[in-house]
């Protein structure tokens, strides 16, 4: 069975490969610090397997995270300006291959969806081929591998490891912000366990007009928006505001429809995703990929959508959920 640990090990191998490429780049301005950062991160993916299995202590990962923070804070990371194609060369490739360039990009989601749909019947001797608990993640990893192979078959670069070289270039363009999705995915859990939701509930209910449904809806939607901006992840903000306002006030006190309240609430939170650099995978990665002069250009373009959409979601919740 292909389980999620295999995906983590593949990611770890890639980070270590990038670290090796960086340390071998004599022209890199921070090759030792950058290599140490990405290499240590790659080793964490391997070590995490034993932590998850309960055969290794987790505090070592904690120390590794602190070292990563120290390396990033002391500006040990830098863009090594890895060799790549020039602008005119890319324009020539685009003219040559045309719409074929979209095939690898479309291969990834198509393969992922097919594997997810077929997962229940993909088995050998009664044992599922894909990890049933993490089918989507495993399918996504396989889809990425297939997409890379398709890209190599279509583009036929001079070097078979071109995907590794180019991904190193993109990774260094993004920098430490590439870790934000990992960090933020745990932040919501930590905040909830620490009682942040309860604290927010106590604070907000103390100043919110009693018996005002409109005020409660606005506080819930705007709160999800604000926490998402701060945390960079709507899924991290959701448990906090739902524990504070969504469930005790909107559902239990005002008898709102839970499905509508929580579905629209998530959409309100996602409006915050459009406005924050903390959502690196949505707002900073595209800027790096497109080599935009303004790294916050994506956010600037999305502000005109985010705020009106937040107002619309707030109105929809008020009129549809109660």
Essential attributes:
322 residues, 2 strands, mainly alpha, two-stranded antiparallel ribbon, 73% helix
Structural write-up:
This protein has 322 residues and is mostly helical. It is built from 15 helices and 2 strands. It has helices spanning 4-23, 31-53, 59-73, 87-97, 102-118, 135-155, 162-174, 180-193, 196-207, 213-231, 234-253, 258-273, 280-283, 285-289, 297-320; strands spanning 123-124, 127-128. Strands 1-2 form a two-stranded antiparallel ribbon. Helix 10 packs antiparallel against helix 11 and helix 10 (213-231) packs across helix 12 (258-273). The protein is globular and about 70 Å long.
Overall structural class, as computed from helix and strand content, comes to mainly alpha
Helical residue percent band? over 70%
| Average pLDDT rating | 87
The percentage of residues in β strands lies in under 5%
Shape: globular
Quantity of strands, as a count? 2
Largest sheet: 2 strands, antiparallel
Count of helical regions: 15
The unreliable regions are none
**How is the largest sheet built, in terms of strand order?**
1-2
CA-to-CA gap between the ends? 47 Å
Order of helices and strands: HHHHHEEHHHHHHHHHH
State the gist of this model:
The protein is mainly alpha-helical. It is built from 15 helices and two strands.
List the helices and strands and how they pair.
Layout: H1 4-23, H2 31-53, H3 59-73, H4 87-97, H5 102-118, E1 123-124, E2 127-128, H6 135-155, H7 162-174, H8 180-193, H9 196-207, H10 213-231, H11 234-253, H12 258-273, H13 280-283, H14 285-289, H15 297-320
Antiparallel strand pairs: 1-2
């Amino acid at each position: 069975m292909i389980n999620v640990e295999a995906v983590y090990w593949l990611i770890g191998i890639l980070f270590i490969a990038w670290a090796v490429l960086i340390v071998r780049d004599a022209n890199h301005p921070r090759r030792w610090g950058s290599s140490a950062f990405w290499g240590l991160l790659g080793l964490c993916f391997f070590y995490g397997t034993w932590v998850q299995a309960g055969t290794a202590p987790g505090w070592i990962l904690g120390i590794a995270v602190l070292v990563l923070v120290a390396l990033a804070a002391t500006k040990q990371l830098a863009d090594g300006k890895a060799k790549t194609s020039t602008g005119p060369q890319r324009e020539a490739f685009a003219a040559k291959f045309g719409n074929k360039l979209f095939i690898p990009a479309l291969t990834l989601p198509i393969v992922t969806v097919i594997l997810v749909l077929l997962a229940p019947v993909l088995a050998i001797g009664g044992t599922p081929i894909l990890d049933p608990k993490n089918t989507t993640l495993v399918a996504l990893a396989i889809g990425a591998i297939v997409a890379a192979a398709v890209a190599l078959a279509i583009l036929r670069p001079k070097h078979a490891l071109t995907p590794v070289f180019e991904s190193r270039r993109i990774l260094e363009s993004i920098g430490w912000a590439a870790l934000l999705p990992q960090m933020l995915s745990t932040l919501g859990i930590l905040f909830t366990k620490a009682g942040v939701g309860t604290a927010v509930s106590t604070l907000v209910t103390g100043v919110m007009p009693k018996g005002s449904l409109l005020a409660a809806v606005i506080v819930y939607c705007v709160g999800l928006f604000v926490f998402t901006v701060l945390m960079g992840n709507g899924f991290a903000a959701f448990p906090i505001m739902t524990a504070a306002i969504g469930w005790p006030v909107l559902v239990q006190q005002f008898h709102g429809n839970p499905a509508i309240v929580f579905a629209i609430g998530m959409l309100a939170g996602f409006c915050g995703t459009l406005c924050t650099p903390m959502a690196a995978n949505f707002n900073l990665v595209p800027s790096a990929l497109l080599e935009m002069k303004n790294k916050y250009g994506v956010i600037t373009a999305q502000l005109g959508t985010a705020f009106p959409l937040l107002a619309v979601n707030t109105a929809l919740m008020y009129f549809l959920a109660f």
